[in-house]
Amino acid sequence: MGRITFPIGPQHPALKEPESFKITAEGERVVAADVRLGYCHRSIEAACQHRNYVRGQYICERICGICSHIHCNTFARAVEELLQLEVPMRARYIRTIVAELERIHSHLLWLGVAAHEVGFDTLFMYVWRDREVVQDLLELISGNRVNYGMATIGGAKMDLTPEIVDKCLEGMDVLLERTAYYTHVGTTEGTFLKRVEGVGMLSEQQARELGAVGPTSRASNVPNDIRHDFPYDAYDQIETDFEPITSDLCDVLGRTIVRVLETVQACEVCKDLLTRLPEGEIQARAKPRVPEAEALVRCEAPRGELIYYMRSNGTDKPARVKVRTPSLANWPAALAMLEGAYVADVPIALASIDPCMACTDR
Amino acid sequence: MDAGNELMSLFYILIFPGFAFLVAFGLFADFFDRKVVARLQNRQGPPWYQPLADMIKLLGKEDIITDHADRGIVNLIPLFGLASVAAAFLYVPLWSVEWPFSFTGDLVVIVYLLTIPAFVLVLLGWYSPNPFGSLGTGRVITQLFGYEVPFTLALLTPAIVAESWQVTELLRFQLMDTWFIGITPVAFFVAIVALVGKLERIPFDIPHAETEIVEGPMTEYTGRKLALLKMMFQTEMVVGSALIAVLFLGGPYFPGITAALAGTVAGTVVGFLIVLVKTLLMIFLLSLIKALFARLRIEQMVNWCLVWLTIPILLQILFIIVAASL
Lengths: 362, 326
Hints:
The complex is a heterodimer of chains A (about 350) and B (about 325). Chain A contains 14 helices and eight strands. Chain A has helices spanning about 45-50, 55-60, 70-85, 90-115, 120-140, 160-190, 190-195, 205-210, 215-220, 225-230, 250-275, 325-340, 345-350, 355-360; strands at about 5-10, 20-25, 30-35, 150, 155, 295-300, 305-310, 320-325. The two termini of chain A are about 40 Å apart. Chain B has helices spanning about 5-15, 20-40, 50-60, 70-90, 105-125, 130-160, 165-175, 180-185, 185-200, 210-215, 225-250, 255-260, 265-290, 300-325.
């Protein structure tokens, strides 16, 4: 059978953002896959170096439209480390709650996209309807559905009033119930299972060697989770069961299960933190001048480990800001999944790392 | 044949119950399908005129033919597909056993004409320089092996029972005996599922799986020609559903109503309405299937069809032959 080379992207119905893949297929089997990055490059790192720290944080929040808070938060933590600034406990709780709400919204969004990639549009519609619950909560807390701007250097921008806390707790109960239902659908619906079981295999060894991060690595039984291994913000305060969720299935089904269970876990973490929200200030006073220093902070974004490196030179602008996003770390793993796959499985295999092209290219 | 008769035939073929009615009902069926699926998916769904608006919009769009495509073929094929579906519709009796176009063996002709849309898609992809078109063509052909044999066998099962190849004779049989859904339930099930494959709907929308190969064979088609292709699928849905309604659900008959109104004009009208309702019921079944499943992979689809369509229908036919010989 003849070889066909066809492009997926930069413009393709399976991709929500522009990125280019060259797929060579023999019949319905993929024999080679290549990725071209850079269609979303916006020079954000350079832009940060030409702006002061406060404005740089707004720029960085716009690296990603889905996990915007985690960029905002990590930028703030990097500057706090440069300043050696202690953040009040209440602010740390609020930041963690928003980060977990964001994880819920990101994972539900992914579940919908994954269902759409395998033609299961009904699940897609239902998941995205229920995602509105958490979107409404985020809007209630911050005033925005995306780009919440909740982390400031040395604190949190908005306080959580008791009414908001009550609404959030109610929302969490709804989400826990709905997520349990999706766990059931995702693990029992025959046609969906046929499309995700044994698809996009990434063995534990491959996951380690290719440096996969986040749910992609955890679904290959590599239990790395920055929240658990190197707790930041209020992650060391959690009293519920908080172990990294792993799966040894190593396929798209494993990634689905990991993300759905993480959604459940995030709901429970939110409930726990919301009920034990400490009293106090939400903003620490920062020194007006950033001393010459270096900082490297890591955190667990919904897609995996996010790294910010920052160096200051004593002026009001950073000398260097470097962002390593989780999607970038997952591309080698994604290409490994495509080898020998069916052409029909390419979109779902690529989607299974939850790629964020805008994050990748910055 | 005198002039009046010829005019009447033209009216039958072009206006009612022929082409114009078929297209109108096709548009309505498309709306009905989209609305039902939307409600099942917790969405609002389109207004009733949406399919018509889509069609008008497509007719007004630029008609692009790529440089490497064969102009003659590309212009001709969509018409060919629509014409074959419209021709098949003429042989489906819509209100009585006294059908003007009926002849011995018309069932075979309908099955044959309904196969042509698949070949239209094959040719479309074949003459398109697009790699998605080539992939889609391969999938259309592969999928054909999955559903075509069970579909044909399922439609022929009532013919074996009634020992006739004429659709009106099969209707007459159902009037005297029970509906074929009661006699050959497996054939009914197989016919519906194979029709899903024929219409390339979820879970068998593999040849034009949007997220994988864009629109498959239709990727390069725009404007008028795309409108014709959409119309081909809409009308094929109507013809397939109407055919199943006539063959398995007793067509215009309904216990009580038919006997009471036998021989009157009202009887004909009501019979026609009953066929429409039964056709919509079949389309409702198709919509349910569309909302319930994810898309299969091509090799899963062929294997599944072999196990769950071909083997059961062969067993059903074997059962009928054995039962008849006893």
